[in-house]
Specification:
289 residues, alpha/beta, N-(1-d-carboxylethyl)-l-norvaline Dehydrogenase, domain 2, 2 domains, 11 helices, 45% helix, binds nicotinamide-adenine-dinucleotide
């Protein structure tokens, strides 16, 4: 029996669908919620496609894939997640959105339910402070793609109870992840260290040092990185990456080391969000979403 037999994932986008799949793979029943019906329709299709690939590669049987799919229950109303033991919020990177969602959960879920957020950069302490029982709120930060990246950051807000962190760490291990416990600082560990990777690449592009393909190639072939900064921004989602940079910059009192770049803002304004929208720094229209 998993540490959390019943999990609700809020937000069925890039991260939420992967996290839902992971939790179901560990044997949890997963309620999957999204404010937008389209996202809720797309997520199970994406999960089934990923599992079918696993079957093809001999990683799991058809029957096992079916059991996982059956454990995932898309829900249209938050009320339907009231029996969850753990909430993993993976909605858009906006403090307002997250605070609003958490405040709606206070009286809907049981008192023992842990409320976690997959935020990349927002203050978990601030989110917790807006709830009735802040001691049960923490960060549970997965990386993209959630099903494949081993690392997770378990973020202790100022108010988080130690037992909450211990249970999340135990569950992360059941999900076959490597949990790292971190304090609640802007960007935590990974996103703080990664900010200059994107920021300097955007500044280099803006100054005309080289085009984005050349910068990516140099970082891969010369720097030994698995992905160049522009490929990575496209994978993450340019809107999500821009929001993360902006919030780390704000949180560090507008320290110029983290200043966002106009190129990224313009791409967000244009709807060029990366892989998920079919176009970012690269063109994905031929791949389908
Ligand atoms: N993309 C990444 O690489 C990455 C990595 C780690 C963490 N994160 C974090 O995960 C979270 C989600 O990011 P994503 O990349 O999956 O974004 P996404 O845009 O792919 O998905 C966000 C989903 O949230 C839904 N949503 C918006 N408001 C909602 C609400 N009120 N209730 C329920 N659902 C709502 C949207 O419809 C969308 O389906 C963000 O906090 C982000 O910072 C993202």
């Amino acid at each position: 029996m998993p540490t959390f037999p019943s999990v609700a994932v809020l937000g069925a986008g890039t991260m939420g669908s992967g996290i839902a799949q992971l939790c179901a793979q560990a044997g949890s029943t997963v309620f999957l919620f999204d404010a937008f019906p389209d996202a809720l329709k797309r997520a199970p299709q994406k999960i089934e496609k990923d599992l079918a690939k696993g079957v093809e590669l001999g990683k799991l049987s058809k029957e096992q894939a079916k059991v996982i799919v059956d454990l995932i229950k898309p829900i249209n109303l938050l009320d339907e997640c009231k029996s969850a033991d753990l909430i993993i919020e993976a909605a858009s990177e906006s403090l307002e959105v997250k605070v609003e969602l958490f405040s709606q959960l206070d009286d809907r879920v049981g008192h023992d339910c842990i409320l976690s957020t997959n935020t990349s950069s927002l203050s978990v302490t601030q989110i917790a402070a807006k709830t009735k029982y802040p001691h049960r709120v923490c960060g549970f930060h997965f990386f993209n793609p959630a099903t494949r990246m081993r690392l997770v950051e378990v973020v202790a807000a100022h108010q988080t109870d130690k037992s909450v962190i211990e249970r999340i760490v135990a569950y992360a291990i059941e999900l076959e992840k490597t949990p790292v416990v971190t304090k609640d600082t802007p960007g935590f560990i990974v996103n703080r260290v990664a900010r200059p990777y994107y920021g300097e690449a955007l500044r280099a592009l803006g100054e005309g040092l080289a085009d984005h393909m050349t910068i990516d190639r140099i970082m891969r072939e010369g720097g030994g990185f698995k992905m160049g900064p522009f490929e990575l921004m496209d994978l993450i989602g340019i809107d999500i990456n821009f929001a993360a940079t902006s919030s780390v910059w704000e949180a560090y009192f507008r320290d110029s080391r983290y200043r966002p770049h106009l190129i990224q803002k313009q791409m967000v304004d244009a709807g060029f969000l990366g892989k998920k929208s079919g176009r970012g720094f690269y063109d994905y229209s031929a791949e389908g979403k």
